[in-house]
Hints:
Layout: H1 9-42, H2 45-53, H3 55-76, H4 80-113, H5 124-145, H6 148-178, H7 183-215
Helix pairs in contact: 1-2, 1-3, 1-4, 1-5, 2-4, 3-4, 4-7, 5-6, 5-7, 6-7
Amino acid sequence: MHVRQHTDPHYEQELKALHLKILEMGGFVEKQIARAVDALVRRDDALATLTIEGDHTANRMDVEIDEFCIRLLALHQPAARDLRLITIGLKITTDLERIGDMAVNLCERTLELNREPPLKPFIDIPKMAEVAQGMLRRSLDAFVREDVALALDVCREDDTIDALNGQLFRELLSYMLEDPHTITRSIRLLFIAKYLERIADHATNIAEMVVFMVKGKSIRHLDKVPPSV
């Protein structure tokens, strides 16, 4: 874990604690994604419901980290990279909380899909989930290690999710055109794919914030991810 040395050891420990709190929340929402997709594939109402109920934990972590960051800002009046670290900590938890919301939304669609016969084997959606989870994990690794190269790699991988989503859209569109009885189920699966795409977008947001934290440069809204910063 990369934490700069300070003359105040208590402050240094608090910055380390911030990293750990964010990692803990990130690990929890990653587990929520895994549970949500598992519930979908196994058609498991109980697991879907358990995942929905777990959203309270993500919300609590979000509030606690926000309060912790605000206290650090008030007590230590940080400057330069420490200021960017703490303010970005506030933003990262917002993205993590929204990732948790996407897992909940996925479970809600699962409960609806489970009332009807399966439409097709689940291949693309678990693959999308695997890519999105990997992006989240690496974006948090980049945050802790202050690794700009890793953060940029995460940003580039967003194209993979977009391609998988497009592929699934075309497949489900063909189902709907061939048989109108599949429209409701297909639309719910398209919603699920969109949730996973949004998870990847939030992971990309985190990676972009890592670049800003380390380099003080924003790469948001660029047409193409730069090879380096």
